[in-house]
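Researcher: Please translate sequence to structure tokens.
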Amino acid sequence: MWKTILRRLLMMIPQIIILSIIAFFVAKMMPGDPFTGMIDPSIDPAVIEKLRIEAGYYDPIPEQYLRWVGNILQGDFGQSILFKQPVLDVIMQRLNNTIWLSLLTMILTYAIALPLGMIAGRYQNSLADKVITVYNFLTFSTPIFVFAILMLWLFGFTLGWFPTRGSIGSGVEGIAAIFSRIHHMILPAITMAILSTTVTIQYLRTGIIDAKGQDYVRTARAKGVPEKVVYNRHIFRNSILPIASFLGYELTGLIGGSIFIENIFTYPGIGQLFFNSISSRDYSVILALLLIFGMATLLGTLLSDIIMSIVDPRIRVK
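Model: Translation complete:
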């Protein structure tokens, strides 16, 4: 197992190099520059032009890329024009919020999707199955920003059950700070979780329906195995395999896909940071985040393979 993991990590090196090239050129193709609009308009344009030259803005693109990679290998991701801080410090201040939000979202996603998928598959074509199918259709077809704004308006502004911005209340410390963070995460996490259940429910429902007709299930029933045991030990265990294979992808997808949610709920994570950096042409932060999102996807692929091999010993990571 460890040799396989090491081999897969080594295979990621050329993928990361290609990813860095794509991320760099995509960022450079964006219109404008980080100096436009970020400095007092009364400053002499010649001063701004001097800053561009000092930053190497007019250097050949390959030279800029090699300089950027060389700095990264030394742990230097550059300086944020917007925040006037090292890029790594800016990201680390927000990364923790996004990770915890993604973990809570994933827990809520499976807490909702697994029971609904089991009910829909076990009681195929029943009223419950039809209701869950309608729910699946609505969550699949509803745009995330529309649903997020609705949830924010209803539970944040109208009912006042949850905070509408930030990641922690002002002036709280100790245990109160932990509960405040959870309180701030619940509404955006539930919003993302509801819209993330579609695939899991559908895969589980289909898997259970297929498994019900398999020979090993008929054999278990013929031997007099209780129906509850048949579903929990035989049908559900085999139906969960496709879902387990997507676990790594889903976690990294939530981290990268929190841009809309964090902006709508004004939640200070890397999703909101990415959006603000694009708006201000903060290239150093944009490049670092693109690289992080890409590496997270690669690691998610490896994580899914490892989880799959643990869940089903017959499968080995190749």
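Researcher: Any highlights?
Model: The radius of gyration is 24 Å.
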